[in-house]
Structures are given as C-alpha cells and as structure tokens.
Specification:
By secondary structure, this protein is mainly α. Helices cover about 75% and strands about 0% of the residues. Its main location: membrane.
C-alpha cells in the first residue's frame, strides 16, 4: 500500500449505507464534522468528533485496518504533538489537536474509500457550475482538482522511494540526497503533465 493510500485511503467498492449515500451528502457530512472542529477549542468536543468519525467509518463495512489504520508518519506526529504539549504544560491541548487531526483524516476517508475519484471531481464541478455566470470556469476547476488528486499520490510515492534509496546508501540524514531527486522528479512530472495538456489543447488560453 502506498503512503498516500495509507493516509487517505483509495476507493473500495461496497454496498454499505455510506457507499449508497449521494456524493453531495458525503461532502456535507465531511464539512459538518471538519469545520466546527477548527472553531470549537475543546478537547471533549474533539474526542466526540473522533468517536463519531470512527463510528461512521465502521458503517462502511470495510476492513478495520483499511478504515481506521494510521501510517507510521501519523504516529510520529502524534508522539511529537503530545510530547510538546505535555512539555509546555498543556497536555489537554495535545489531546484536542491530535483528536482533531485524526478525525479529519477519518472523515476524508469517508469520501475517498466509498466514492470513486471521478465522481468526487464531477460533484465539485457541478457545485461550482453556477459560478460560470460570473466568469468562473468550472470545467478548468474540475481539471485542476483531478490533476491534484493524481499528482499527490505520485509525489508521495516518489518521496517515499527516494527516502528508501537514500537509506539503502546510508544517506538518510543527508537532506541533499533526500530533497534533490524529489524536486527533479516533481519538475519532470509537471513538465510531462503540461505537455500532455497542451497536446490536447487544454493548456491554451481561451
């Protein structure tokens, strides 16, 4: 499993109540959980949100590990946040921040695990289409979102491969050896993507 899929998840077909929800309802469900989390500065509210997000993921009937498992990077972040907040005398703030972050990850999985990426993009385009009347280009917006969804897994995988290669050469602490191949690979990927868009007439100004 790639680092990206380990964090956000990839679509898994199913027949659960969450799978059958309209994509718009799923987006509203995610927004209803994530937006208040950033304005309600309460560790109790954050834990309630986390519990609700886990319960919703259980409704997907997907394998427990795929639904709520967290990659090593998240656990490192959890330890660092908790250690820092404990050090400065605010352990409950650490609980609040960790619960909010994990809950937001879980809520995002409600979308990515139960809805194909093209459906997610089409829903965003449909929601943005009324803005076309004021000069907004919903189709280009959808294309941009699709490119982001496609690019993130590639860049995460590239970064992971570079770290693995550097570690095999004993260079895991050498930031130059870890950063340079990622930058070069990202630029090359962007160039290939741009060339493909131009070849299809999608990179030209209207």
């Amino acid at each position: 499993m790639s680092a990206h899929d380990q964090l956000f998840g990839a679509y898994i077909p199913g027949h659960s109540v969450i799978h059958r929800l309209p994509v718009g309802a799923k987006y509203l469900l995610v927004l209803a959980g994530t937006i208040p989390a950033f304005f309600t500065r309460s560790w109790i509210a954050s834990l309630v949100l986390l519990a609700c997000s886990v319960a919703l993921l259980m409704l997907t009937r997907l394998p427990f590990g795929r639904a709520v498992g967290l990659g090593g990077g998240i656990w490192i972040l959890v330890v660092i946040l908790m250690a820092w907040n404990t050090f400065v005398g605010r352990p409950l703030d650490g609980v609040m921040n960790i619960a909010t972050i994990v809950a937001c990850i879980y809520l995002s999985r409600l979308l990515t695990l139960t809805t194909p990426a093209p459906v997610l993009v089409d829903a965003l385009v449909a929601a943005a289409r009324p803005l076309d009347r004021v000069g907004f280009n919903s189709e280009r917006f959808g294309l941009s979102v699709a490119l982001v969804l496609r690019s993130i897994p590639y860049l995460v995988s590239l970064s992971s491969d570079v770290r693995t290669a550097a570690r095999a050469r004993g260079l895991e602490r050498n930031w130059f050896a870890n950063l340079t191949p990622v930058v070069i690979g990202a630029v090359a990927y962007a160039q290939r993507t741009g060339d493909a868009l131009v070849a299809r007439g999608l990179g030209e100004d209207d």
